[in-house]
Structure of Chromosome partitioning protein ParA:
Amino acid sequence: MAIVNPRPRILVLANQKGGVGKTTTAINLGTALAAIGERVLIVDLDPQGNASTGLGIDRKNRSISTYDVLVGEKSLSEVIQRTAVPRLDVAPSTLDLLGVELEIASAKNRAYRLRDAIADLPAEEDGYTYILVDCPPSLNLLTINALSAAHAVLVPLQCEFFALEGLSQLLKTVEQVKAALNPRLTIHGIVLTMYDARNNLSGQVVADVRQFMGDKVYDTIIPRNVRVSEAPSYGKPVLLYDLKCVGSQAYLKLASEIIQRERTLRAA
Ligand code: ADP
Ligand code: MG
């Protein structure tokens, strides 16, 4: 019997630390999933809009954004834009998002704005199979909206000395959101980023994180790779910029690992 997937899987990239690879992973994991046939939407919930820029959506082409969706002025499908990657779309963000918290602070469904907007997406034939939400570096109402909408959280951790610092706070927030707002929420996995094989510390961090988080840590580790950091300035995912580089290959591997983990989750 064919497996029918009527609704997209909603995965959220969250970590209240900045610079750990959330946006890079949203862009490149999204591209890799699209490359292997999934229909992917990236929702940019960071006012900085780095995911939107990195996917080639210039600021001047972002008059409407996820801000308009969260305040209830536009539907999600109205703000979605195509990218240069086949099967990959983006709902861009603008700096207006900075004000959203105050604007919807007293609305009763303020934590469910994103969830409801996704539920209202028309289920067209080529509907999304994955929605990846890129969060700001904070556990604010934007991140809470993402977690309330999610099936699962993907946590990028940078291979650096303080990698684990802040992780327990994040896990606690996930537990709180699960208890109060979204009972289906789980941790999908931890992805180690910016691994540097020449640096002993990177290896030690990998060992520590695996000891602490066990098999929640993906086998795939994303190496530090200059091509990955160059790609956004060309408005391209690294897979379009340099498919052969180790960064692109790692994101392809991560995508297949995630699909594999999804199959196991569904079978359970
Ligand atoms: P976050 O969204 O968590 O703030 P970013 O994805 O924006 O983090 O990454 C922070 C910085 O690190 C960016 O300049 C990005 O280009 C760079 N970076 C991320 N991943 C890699 C990598 N694998 N190799 C090299 N540079 C990376
Ligand atoms: Mg970011």
